[in-house]
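Hello forum,

I keep getting stuck at the same step: I have a sequence, I want structure tokens, and every attempt I make locally crashes halfway through. Rather than fight my setup again tonight, could one of you with a working pipeline run this one for me? It's a single chain of 426 residues.
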Amino acid sequence: MLKRTVMTALAYVGLMVGAGFASGQEVLQYFVSFGIWGIVGAIVAALVLALTGMIVLQLGSYYRANEHSVVFGEISHPLLAKVLDAFITFTLFCIGLVMIAGAGANLEQQFGLPVWVGSAIMALLCIAAGLLDVERVATVIGAITPFIIVLVVAASSYAIASADSTRSQLDSLAATIPSTLPHWTLSSLNYVALALALGVSMAIVMGGDQLDPKSAGRGGLLGGLLFGGLLTIAAIALYAQLGSVIDQPMPMLELVDSIHPAAGLIMAIVIFGMIFNTGVGMFYALARRVSVTKPGRFFPALVIFVLVAFAGSFVGFTSLVAYLYPIIGYVGLLLIAILVLAWLRQRSDIAEEIERRFHIRRLARKKLQQDLPFSPADQHHLDKAISESVVDDQELRRDVALEVKDEIEADPEAELDASKLPPLSS
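Reply #2:
Ran it on my machine without issues. Output:
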């Protein structure tokens, strides 16, 4: 369970980091532009991100959602659910578009390539990743994340340690950064809402892929803390080195490049990986949503969305961040309120479901492992627990059986009774 929690956390960080602060442009406009108070805003955002991460993944697991409208339909009025669904669908496309534009800006700044080249490479990678299932997509995203964490922390630590400007100089310089947001408190909340809006769809899918809401929630909490911590460190580093990064479309890349050209090369590759993480998460969740009733349309839909986003990416990365992000963030504030209120209302139900699924897994282990006793009374309790769950009976029987099967097969001291797979029925 610990391994699953950590992998979920890394996938959650990887999902949001591309749009959250990969380029540094987002951090400049949302936090650094407000000077030292912007750093306070980043810390506030980090704490709220941890809470919302836990809530989103836990709700996804609780309802075993395979796309975001499942959760919205359960926690809000049908009309409001449709509005939220449309908003998230719009957000997925917009963020995917920004990621393709960001990939072009990244390679242009570091290697002098035409913008369309980097954007085209990113578009092709997103299409290729669409051939994977959700678990493999989450694995790919999570695998890149540790490299992101190490490089961001190392580069930011160096930048902070080598800073030589006074706070008054930095605050004066920060005041010249254009921002469409009026105050650091609103900017901080807007950023959290933006992060939630861009990550909620794929995060719900990742949560829905897990049977244990407790483990899923812990993964979201840990992922939110990691992401928020990285955000805060990046904000402090960019603030400390503001004079050298203020005019760059990719401030994080410039920050590392100023340390050493070789480090800049590595950072350009890592930023590209961060952008890929978020881009593939957005397009995967978007195509999953529009093809929910006709799964065969998933890949064609993904290809169409990516190609349209590629065409729209020529508007320019900095402009897209400045205007699209705050709009998404304002509407995302409503989404935060709905999710938090729903979670507060259903905390006791979620707690009961966590215990129920633990009980179901324990009984399923007794039934499927050959050397453990399993009585008719155990079968009665298993059937009763499954019928009381919020998840469809047959779906839950199948998924628990397959998960316990993998668990038994991984245990060298246990032997599977394959004759009782997969339904767990009497």
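The longest helix spans residues 78-111. If your local run keeps crashing, start a new thread with the error log.
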